[in-house]
Write a sequence for this structure.
């Protein structure tokens, strides 16, 4: 049964991506979104597509034609980075690359991955919520994690200093009620990262029950309180992003009011169709 459900989800996601790609070739409707400046970049809209939807960058920059300001490609392994095609040129959406942090690989190898990704992305996201990265979050490996984050931040800084453009570096962390990652956020501040993406969903499987559970006002309020806590700590020095449970324009505005600069969607895009960003933006 579990395997059958997984197959259905994969087929549904593949169909949703195909629909989004097809819709991106339709005449673009005028968006009500206002561009936002975050991490030194101008995003055409504060609404973006979370990693996992467009794993290989098929939609890419054309996401702007659907009202999205950005799309996050991946998560990407080292092998996938070598096979990645440069983001398409059509449209204005920014493209981020979501990088898996495999603790079995050396710091030098992971820095090489970042270097390859830097040349292809508008921003980079280090993914610390994937099962692959889970061992790095163990308390006994905290020193290793901080060492790795420092090395990756230093590598990004060196590339930005020598190149003709600046690619911001952010980290994706799980943020749940009673488990807001304050200590890691503080470490990111000290290390000089550009952004933090708070993921408010506990992770797979993405069931229908969990999706509709986000329509509860109290659950939305909890996510906003997590963003408020992080916002008070970061005080603008770290750009905050939020992903998980956003389904309506009211949800979007509440996350932005709580302190998120950018908001990503995933399940809503799968379930509500390719024009969800236009509905969220009103």
């Amino acid at each position: 049964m579990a395997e059958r459900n997984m197959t259905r989800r994969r087929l549904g996601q593949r169909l949703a991506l195909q629909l989004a790609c097809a819709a991106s070739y339709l005449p673009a409707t005028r968006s009500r979104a206002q561009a936002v400046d975050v991490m030194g970049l101008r995003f055409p809209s504060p609404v973006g597509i979370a990693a996992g939807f467009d794993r290989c960058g098929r939609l890419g920059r054309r996401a702007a034609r659907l009202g999205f300001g950005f799309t996050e490609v991946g998560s990407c392994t080292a092998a996938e980075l070598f096979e990645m095609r440069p983001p398409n040129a059509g449209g204005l959406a920014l493209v981020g690359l979501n990088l898996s942090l495999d603790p079995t690989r050396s710091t030098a190898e992971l820095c090489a991955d970042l270097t390859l990704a830097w040349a292809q992305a508008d921003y980079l996201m280090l993914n610390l919520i994937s099962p692959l990265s889970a061992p790095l979050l163990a308390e006994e490996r905290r020193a290793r994690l901080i060492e790795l984050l420092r090395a990756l931040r230093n590598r990004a800084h060196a590339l930005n200093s020598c190149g003709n453009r600046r690619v911001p570096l952010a980290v994706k962390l799980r943020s749940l009620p009673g488990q807001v990652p304050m200590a890691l956020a503080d470490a990111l501040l000290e290390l000089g990262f550009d952004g933090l993406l708070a993921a408010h969903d506990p992770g797979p499987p993405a069931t229908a029950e969990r999706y509709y559970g986000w329509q509860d006002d109290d659950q939305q309020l909890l996510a906003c309180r997590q963003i408020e806590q992080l916002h008070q700590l970061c005080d603008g020095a770290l750009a905050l992003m939020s992903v998980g449970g956003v389904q309506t324009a009211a949800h979007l505005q509440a996350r932005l009011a709580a302190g998120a600069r950018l908001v990503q969607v995933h399940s809503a895009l799968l379930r509500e169709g390719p024009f969800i960003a236009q509905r969220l933006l009103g």
